[in-house]
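1st attempt posting a full record on here, be nice pls
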Amino acid sequence: MMNIYLLLYNIVAVPLLWIVFHLGGFVNKKIRRGILGRKNLFSELKTNIEKNNSATRFWFHASSLGEFEQAKPIISAIRKDHPHIQIIATFFSPSGFENSKNYKGANVISYIPFDSYRGVKKFIDIVKPSVAIMVRYDIWPNMIFALKKNNIPVVIANATMKDHTLRKLPIFRQFHRSLYDCFSYILTVSKNDQNSFQEFGITAPIINAIGDTRFDQVMMRSHDARQKHLLSPSITENKKIFIVGQSWAEDDDIIIPVLLKIQKNEDSLLTIIVPHEPTVQHLEELESKLLEKISFIRFSEMNNYRGEKVILIDSIGVLVALYQYADVVYVGGSFRQGIHNILEPAVFDLPVIYGPKHTNSQEAVDLARLGGGFVIENERDLYRLLRTLLGNSSDRVHAGKISGTFVREHCGATERFLHYLQPYLNK
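the predicted structure (as tokens):
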């Protein structure tokens, strides 16, 4: 039965995915970048591998930048204690590759090849990994079966599995059971995820819940961020600072009317808006909504700061460092398609506000239940909540402590993960 599934995957699914992928390149710039980026994949990969030749190679694969952030604390720990190990990092998406190609923790950074039998074989022949670590969920069948065939141990880090997933339907269940049986370890974020994997009837790998390395990563990043001084004390002194992180137009439509209203009661309020994508268009739209209603300035023009009430961030890579100045934070995406990272502000002991579309993040659900996160449905909710948090320091500090404690209590997954890598670290 398994051979039939694999045959169907290779004669139907793989060609169909290849066609869709390449047709998509004609209309989508991101997909086109991914296609062009793979043009000389194998020759470049071979050259870079040979530059850093080592008998022990750890291969980390992530779909995109968000998943790779979860691998970074593991990589940092390996580099610290085992500098001889060669680290290879691959990505499926252009955003992951392009934003990580200068990452110093890896010796080699590359795209993963398309999941054809031939491409997979060539990749493994060049890389020859001692162990393969898949982050979260980006698992390609031909690659996994080939790794198993070559006796290369494979581990899933930060594994998650929803209770009601299509993979558990009878038509797909046997295929995925055979696929997951190729792994040595499936290390899950939670006990629920562990139980969900076990429902497949998997027999080969060890399946354990060890936690989520994202908590370790945000803790590491917060330490680094505190060393960056982006705003002078003359700007932040005696101010209440409200940061809007990773906002979309849908978030702006809720926040800006409230901001204009609440500024009348909070004269010392300084708002910093960090768009998810600080494009010229988005920044100009923000400015048009603020124009002649409240004073504002772009971050790139801060040398000319004259007490403006709103700072618009027109650069990337500064959000986490800005959180150190905040009193209250709103995290965007939750009026659009799903909330962005709430752990980044939470680690700074801050109350975190977000909208109704937040259930894509278990941390957002948990933090709201505990009292460190606050869910709003509309402008009225946001206005009332900001009046409370900005006007009552004890409520604000209490909620912030809940947030910070939540992050700290969930740290430690990296150390637990390394325990399972010990047989390969010591080779």
